[in-house]
Amino acid sequence: MRLTAVLLLSSACFAQRAATFETRPATALENDKIELLTLNKGGAFVSLVLKNDPEKTNPMWNPVALARMTKGPSRFGDSLGHFLCVDGFGPTSKEEQAAGLQGHGEAHRQPWTLIGQGRQGKLQQLTFQTRLPIVHEGLIRKLELVDGEQVVYVDSTLENELAFDRPINWAEHATIGYPFLSPGKTVVDASVGKCQTRPHQNMPPNRRLVSDVPFVYPSAPLRAGGQADLRQIPNPPDSMDHTGCIFDPARRLGFITAINLEKGLMLGYLVRREEYPWLQEWMNYPSNLALSRGLEFGTQPFDVSRRQTVEMGKLFDTPAYRWLPAKSKIGTRFLMFYTRVPAGFTQVDDVRQEGGQLIITDSKSQQTIRLAASLPL
Fold first, then answer.
1. The total number of structural domains that make up the chain
2. How far apart are CA 17 and CA 44, in angstroms?
3. Does residue 216 belong to any structural domain of this protein?
């Protein structure tokens, strides 16, 4: 069904509108519950706030603001918030670099054109389009928001313009940052089990985890001996590590959540495992509190080059890349939600969509959060 832009006359309705974030042009999608800002260049989700939050706490990573806080330069370029890594997740080969291809793919560096916007009843849609000129692929991303809901539905289509099958790398670089991400205040849960620490040939000094070792989340092996609880942020922070985990194969939908216990706020994602089998966690915890943690769900366990993922083939009997057939399209769909949590709600054991709701449970406190989620995943 094609939605067309309409003039919204009622004050109870919310239209898409132009906005800025850190001086960068953006597009706002909002309803009576939440507001999401998407950058017009690169398509990153850079701000997500609750309308009834007087502090307007944004869980998304903002390295520009962190650079101001630390009075130093930002070393992350165009990377902000939740950005899309396609086609590519990690560094490029020297040949790809010579051809102009940069790390983490082209999508987050290209201009995104708004090709559709509108409302039908309680449903709003924004549709963006961009082209990846070096790898010859086209991308369309549709955002959906329903009045009264705290859930954004994200539907993407990637098209191969070339006449041969190709292995592609795709990751949603969903990243939270300080102050939402704080030592002793933030916990992360996910429906993962089997994991592996990222392998290193020359171990960087600020890594606290053992290189290239399997483990079961959330207990990861420390170089100094013992185990780290990856749900927690080390206090004091002074490390940087990567882990790759498979979403539970017994579940069709995988979840990732982050709760700021002090503020009582939770950001979460629900993803289709056949499209996003892997969760890489980038745990960047410098001592200056410019903290960031990537909740990066995608097609591969680590952000490494295309060549390395193809050579890896599989890990834990799970493919490390996805095929994009010749002159064809593939798609993905996930949802993200943002909500308050009740006092005593300190962990997430399950997130499921059932009967038009998200049902989020904490077995420790025996509490359940129910959010309206009327569109199917």
1. 1
2. 16
3. no
How far, in Å, CA of 21 to CA of 44, rounded?
11
What is the mean predicted confidence (pLDDT) over 61-81? 88
Range of the structural domain that residue 134 is part of: 17-186+232-372
Residue-level pLDDT at 10: 40
**Max CA separation in the chain (angstroms):** 63
Q: Are 178 and 169 in contact (CB under 8 A)?
A: no
The reply to whether 224 falls in a domain is: no
Half-sphere exposure of 367 (CA within 13 A, CB side): 11
Q: How far apart are CA 320 and CA 169, in angstroms?
A: 8
State pLDDT tens for residues 74-128: 777 778 999 999 999 999 999 999 999 999 999 999 999 999 999 999 999 999 9
Q: Phi and psi (nearest 5°) for 98?
A: -65, -30
Mean pLDDT of 222-241: 96
Which CATH number fits the domain that encloses residue 89?
A: 2.70.98.10
Single-letter code of the amino acid located at 73: P
Confirm whether 203 is domain-assigned.
Answer: no
Which two structure tokens, joined as six digits, stand for 184? Answer: 């002793």
User: Do the domain assignments include residue 112?
Assistant: yes
The vertex-141 CA angle with 136 and 145, nearest 5°, equals 180
Identify the pLDDT of residue 2.
41
